[in-house]
Specification:
Elements: H1 3-24, H2 32-40, H3 44-56, H4 61-69, H5 75-89, H6 94-100, H7 106-118, H8 121-180
Helix pairs in contact: 1-8, 3-4, 3-8, 4-5, 5-6, 6-7, 7-8
Length: 181
Amino acid sequence: MDHSILQLVVLAGFLYLALRWLHRRNSIDALDSLRDSILTGFNRGALLRSLGAHLGAGHSLSRAIASLMATPITRGVRKRLRRLSDRVDAGMPWIDAMRRAGIVTHRESAVLGAAERARNVGWALVTLAQSSDRKTHRRIQRFVSIATPAVTVLFAAVCCFAAISLLRPLTMVIHELMRYA
């Protein structure tokens, strides 16, 4: 049997086991690195939660951004915070600046506008962070639920191919022996 086929079978098996493990996990925290690197390049939930904590504590948005920039953050978060800071410093309203920096969506900016009028922006940002985490969790579950059967079928096809490639020469030898008997 060719070593490349065996390696493919082993790789498919490991991929299958990894997807099964991810499917059984219900924790959003366990999937943060996957979300950060593959889905969006930055963790929206964590960013909104951090901004909500700062603004809920009465800090200004500029102070919250400066505090977050001083922490170890991913390149995507740093880029968005820099854009937000530049736009706020240029005089743009902070909600519009967050929307244009790609931190919140248009609908979420409407929620933040209402929260600003009600003076509970910190709570609204934390709630939006939880909503973002739930959406991401559902996306990951959807991906895993689609990928698991696909990997299972792929693994079965590779195993079938390996079994046929091992048994085919044996059947040919048996047919040749029966012809001479």
